[in-house]
Please model this.
Amino acid sequence: MPTRFALTLVVVGLPIGTVGTQLIVDRQVAALEATAEDSVRGVLQLLDSSVTNLVAAGDISGLHDVLGDVRRHEGVSDTFVIDEDGVLLADGTADEDRRFSRPELHREVVAGNASSPHEAFLFEHGAHLDTALPLMLGDERIGTVVVEYSLAEVQAEAVRAQRTGLALGFVFTGLSGLAVTLLAVRLTRALVRLTDFARVAAEDSLPRVLAAVREGRPVEPHLLSAPSEVGNGREARRLADALGTYGAVVNGMAGDLAQLLRETDARFASAFEGSAVGMAILDPADGRPVAVNDALCRLLGRDQEGLLAASLPDLVHAADRPAYDARLAALLAGSAPGAPVEIRYVRGDGEVVWTMASAAVQRDEDGAVRAVFLQLVDASARKRAESDLVRLAYHDVLTELPNRAYLLDTLERALRRARRTDGPMAVLLLDVDHFKVVNDSLGHDAGDILLREVAARLRAVVRDGDTVARFGGDEFVVVAESPCDEEGATALAQRIEDALSPSVVIDGRPVHVSASIGVAVSRGGRDARSLLRDADTAAYWAKSRGRARHELFDEELRRRADARLQTEQELRQALERDELVPYYQPVVSTTTGEVLGLEALVRWEHPTRGVLAPGAFIEVALETGLIVPLGRRVLELACRDLAVWDTLGGSRPWVSVNIDAQQLHLDGFPDDVARVLRDTGTDPDRIRLELTENAFLDLASMEAAHRLRALGVRLAVDDFGTGYSSLNYLRRLPVDVLKIDRSFLEDLSADPQADAVVRAIVELSHTMGLTVVAEGVETAEQLTALAVIGCDASQGFLIARPMPAASVPAHLGQAAVLPRPAYAGAGS
Model:
């Protein structure tokens, strides 16, 4: 019976014991691999945000530093980061040849990454464990971090464990069979006790051992069940020795597992402490940190003890706390981590620091949250840069006032409020008078100083809540919020005029400043651009009526603006249809009446309004730049008319053509004049170009004038006395003729002072070798006085009115019929 029982036990118990032992070993190995995978996932989650931020910022150097730390961890065989096109960005090594290559990934990793684009993918093949983590910025994948682990050590440990378990099974079963064979009765009792010991080991000892392994504690002897007493014989002692061997094997395996976990924890600690990104591990129950790294201490301006004692959520800025709590609650509830969010924290010194915060959770086998991993990246520099960009986008750099974009947005909001309340609001557009003169005469630095002073005075005079903006160039806009009706708006315009009236001292020189102000009032019925256009129209009329004043936009101004727009449109068509032609007014000798030359004065042969004088359109031409093609056309026609008159014989007069400063400032204007002279075959000495004094205020104009003079063309200063008149300044100009403005002739015969002024101009001009022409002569007394003074030539309605080119030949070759007193005066 004992023998048969022993044989049965050997046949049945041997495989059962072997398989049972093997199952226990397999479970331990599986637990080891699962723990290793959990550690790998945890490391990947910690790397997720820091690597994502570095890739998003394009910080390749930072990527190399982080990946270099990962490579130093035991078990890591390779790691690298690729972008969304599969191009390697960094691998933590100094191998430059590998950078920007396309490393090959295992096809299972590629497939897994494609099927789960937002989750980490682990794939074990052979002695390797490949991990791939997509780097997400919002919903966009910007790259992938790949870490390859070597499982050779783990597999070697597993093989040793399997062999040991198999050997132990055979030894244990063999010893049991031998003991049963020798002592069946005693064996039966031993088996009973052995069964009790195995049950205790399975139900009590083994769970305690595994728990200690998971928690990283050493496996102490007291955690294992003591061998059962099986008797005093030799077989019993051998059985006790076998059980002791079994316990030693289990203890050794448990120690190996604990060592592997300690090494994994050490690698994690190295990455955690050495990271340049602020990191913390939080208790999910109350949000308090259980571990923080040095980077987080520096970022939040607190020492490690202070951070560990504080509740990290309490350090969040009050305005961001709701968003922080909602994000953390969603994460704990099982939502997938989203893109990093901006969170402000209060530092230990009270300053607020902007961060990019990202979080991940670690869960146990039951899905319960064991820890929250938090990463904070300093975003203060980026936020400051964003703030500076916003300010540059919406503020003028020179005056620090809101710019046009900010103004339009503010004005639209003000109009919406006015519509809701049915209250009036106003817009005032200021155009600084004669700003170009300041720029041209004193320089652009002086102009900048003037603009800054105007901005400061405007800010000081407006009401609280009103907006002052620089609209562009020398234009400013004031948005007067509701309530501000017509009376209030005009009162504000008057206050602005008073504030601007004191001179501005620039480089020790007082500069007078004034502005033409247009006022437009609305109760919300206009949009921002329309209201600004109305204010601009009013400012235009203020400028046209003498400057240094304000005008309130009304229906009459609207009518004028519409008429001006129509004039501009028709003037453009007139240039295309050749409706603009020169009329000629003779310039005669003051003493003899001989026709010396003619001044070409443009006329518009309008198809419906008849012949229009320059007063009907020349101002529009100046403002729109149409004066340039108009002046070129008059010069060409004047040269062609000279050629026609020459074919008729008789005298050969010169022709003077008015040139605006806009033409003189054009690049290549002297070359354009030379081309016209060449194409028409006109002698340069027979062309005089008339310019006002203000046209010579800058160096470029002076250079152009010298080039024109070098062509042989004569230059004349027109309307002398109406601008910044200076005979000393006139001495430096390359001019041949000076034309006295008609305003000096009004009281010439009756006012001795007017006579003295004109006499002084004529005498000084002659001293400088200039020919003097008086324009606007309308009475015989004026002509007589000019003859007495010695003025060289005269022109005006008294002598002849402007005439078309066809009428000119009849006046050439004959003296004008001058009043007899002029000759008497000349002879005296």
Remarks:
- The chain has a mean pLDDT of 77.
